[in-house]
Amino acid sequence: DRIRQQIVNNLGLAGLNVESQAKVNAPVNLARLKTSIQQNLDAKTMQVNIKAGGTSPRGDLFYAPFVEFGTKGKVRVPAGYAQFAYQYKGSRTGTFNELLSSITQWVADKGIDPDAAFPIAMSIAKNGIRAQPYLIPAFEREAPQLVRRLKKIKP
After folding, report:
1. In a 10 Å sphere around its CB, with 0-12 CB exposed, 13-18 middle and 19+ buried, how is residue 19 labelled?
2. Is residue 146 within 8 Å of 11, Cβ to Cβ?
3. Which residues pair with 38 in a beta bridge?
4. How far apart are the C-alpha atoms of 21 and 144, rounded to whole Å?
5. The whole model's pTM is what?
6. Per-residue pLDDT tens over the stretch 58-67
7. pLDDT by residue (tens digit) across 119-148?
8. Where does residue 106 fall: left (phi above 0), alpha (psi -120 to 50 degrees), or beta otherwise?
9. Which of 17, 54, 90, 138 has the highest local Cβ count within 10 Å?
């Protein structure tokens, strides 16, 4: 019916807006995280899911939640998202060699002395990385706009 379709259309718009803003917010090195951000609208259940990370043709992007929330002593979880963030605590982590490989590529891309890769990787392994929120801020920005649009739907 007409009202249901308007709701689905607004959910789809919200999903696209969150996806777009999250891509703007996402830190970029090789753009793997940014390109992994996708929304999926299920019109039947009237749900929109936005995901970041997962598997891709270029490998497993297990680190998406670590970028969002940080790691070790640098974890920052926004109020109301503790249960969501908790599901990633202690989840798959890469090996030190995978970290070193990524950092080696990063220093090369940035024109930094290649000898800096090992100490940087050691520092990350010991101290963690700071949170670089990209998905939750995009959602928080869009949610009130979606509510406003849904309230305008007339029966």
Report:
1. buried
2. yes
3. 51
4. 15
5. 0.86
6. 556 778 899 9
7. 999 999 999 999 999 999 999 999 999 999
8. alpha
9. 138
Q: List Cβ<8 Å contacts ≥24 apart for 59-66.
A: 59/32, 60/92, 61/32, 61/33, 61/36, 62/91, 62/92, 62/93, 62/94, 63/33, 63/94, 64/33, 64/36, 65/91, 66/129
Antiparallel, parallel or unpaired: β 47-51 and 38-42: antiparallel
Token pair, residue 134, equals 């990209």
CB 80 within 8 A of CB 98: no
Length of the chain (residues): 155
The 8-class DSSP code of residue 73 comes to G
Residues 6 or more apart whose Cβ sits within 8 Å of residue 26 = 33, 34, 37, 52, 67, 132, 134
Half-sphere exposure in the Cβ direction for 17 (13 Å, CA)? 16
Coil, helix or strand at residue 38: strand
